Amino acid sequence: MFEEKLRDSLRQAVEGVQAGDPPIRRAMARGRLRKWIRLAELVFTALLAVGTLTWALVGLSVLGDHPSEGPVRRAAAGNSFPGDGRILVSDTEGLKWVYADGRIVTVAKGFLGAAPFQSGGRLLAWKPTDVPGTAAATCSGCFYDVDYYVMGLDGSDRQLVLPAEAPAGTVYPHHLDVQVSPGGSKIAYVRQEDLVDGGVRGDELWWTDLATGQKTDLGAVPSSDAAFVWKDGSTLLAQSPDERELDWIDVQTGTRQPYLGVSDPAITDLFQRLRPGIDGPTSLAPLGWSTDPSASALAVLVSGADRASVLVFFGTGEPEGFAPDARHDISLQWGPTGVFALTSFGGDRPEAGAGLYVGNAEMVSPTGQLPTLPQVAGVQGVPEQVAFDPSGSVVVYQFANGDLTFTPVPAAACPQSVTCRSFSPVTLHLIVLHLLAWLP
Fold first, then answer.
1. Are the beta carbons of 391 and 83 closer than 8 angstroms?
2. HEC profile for the chain?
3. Is the pLDDT of residue 51 over 60?
């Protein structure tokens, strides 16, 4: 009971829902920013054993207030891990690289998270900010929104590409699910307009030319965790406002062309076969393309009543669907060489546990045959994030307590071009807030 009360109190503090604060709760609850609600819970969980809630609030305050500095190196004996390359994480200080030999290098203090782009050569990173015209924070670590930057992998050459917007009257704009185009010349994002009474006036898809700063409104999209993905430097695949279709969007002209709908026979047949007893699908969400150019596949999340979901792959032949177990919620993480991780979980029911499965795009054959995906054994609880090493032979997953656990990709899921590994699972106790990427 004590733990639950403290957890609820800390979550409310981070969401900034005290009287007089700007209405950021709804913005923090959806899109890319939703994952940072967990920041309070993760810090709390890691520090609960100490018994000092104040430490957690101070940790959050460091994230919001500490200026970014140059790289700081420190020894990390016992933190070596299997696999190649380096892992990008965030903790209460900011962004850090964790190396296989145990070194930890701080590259951007004060930043909450980041995503690589340009084939892993640069980072899109975001950090908390307050903007003029917003109510002063009433708790340690509270902030209005985040500013988005592009930077080098070492934190250098930073450029502010999407600053937080100040409120206009009773409207509080927020930016969700910011993504860089494959060539790195554009960003696309959902601009959400929250109202002071807690309502939402609308969600619009925008893109910005990073060279000129020109911004273009591409029209309405739903309040979704996966409203769009980039196909190439000029084309987006986006949800329709009612989530029942996926449309191609030419960012230069704004033209929409329907691609896929929930009423398509291939979709309805797969869904009803894999989720028997549940009415037909009601929404589609794009989850991106395979990273293996020789095995092209688009992943789409198809959902129906009670959030029952099916993962559908569109390869070179007939589409093939997959629902690994009875858990209704599904998430997907693409890795290198076409490998992917599929996590099934019980949504708001932690007691349902989770299943972690691994496959690769080669399994989506021209005949549409998708074999049973091997499950990663020994996963206790629901992984927060999942990543693969650069070769695609090692998978790492993170739990709410900040631990990172490494395990070999099951042999049945190793791409043909990869040498499979064999070792016992390895767990690092790093108190990581977020596992962000694994790069060479």
1. yes
2. CHHHHHHHHHHHHHHCCCCCCCCCHHHHCCCHHHHHHHHHHHHHHHHHHHCCHHHHHHHHHHHHHCCCCCCEEECCCCCCCCCCCEEEEECCCEEEEEECCCCEEEEEECCCEEEEECCCCEEEEEEEECCCCCCCCCCCCCCCEEEEEEEECCCCCCEEEECCCCCECCEEEEEEEEEECCCCCEEEEEEEEEECCCCEEEEEEEEEECCCCCEEEEEECCCCCCCEEEEECCEEEEECCCCCEEEEEECCCCCEEEEEECCCHHHHHHHHHHCCCCCCCCEEEEEEECCCCCCCCEEEEEECHHHCEEEEEECCCCCEEECCCCCCEEEEEECHHHEEEEEEECCCCHHHCEEEEEEEHHHCCCCCCCCCCCECCCCCCCCCEEEECCCCCEEEEECCCCEEEEEECCHHHCCCCCCCCCCCCEEEECCCCEEEEEEC
3. no
Query: What are 305-314's pLDDT values in tens digits?
Result: 888 899 998 8
Number of domains making up the chain:
1
Domain-embedded: residue 55: yes
Residue 357 has pLDDT above 80, yes or no: yes
Q: Does residue 93 register a pLDDT over 80?
A: yes
Whether the predicted model's global pTM rises above the 0.85 cut: no
pLDDT tens per residue, range 205-238: 999 999 999 999 999 999 877 899 999 999 999 9
> What CATH number does residue 187 fall under?
2.120.10
Instruction: Give 372's pLDDT tier (boundaries 50, 70, 90).
Output: confident
Contact at 8 Å (CB) between 111 and 97? no
pLDDT for the residue 130: 82
Domain span holding position 210: 1-68+110-261
**Residue 184 C-alpha from the chain's centroid:** 19
Domain membership flag for residue 194: yes
Specify the pLDDT at position 73.
44
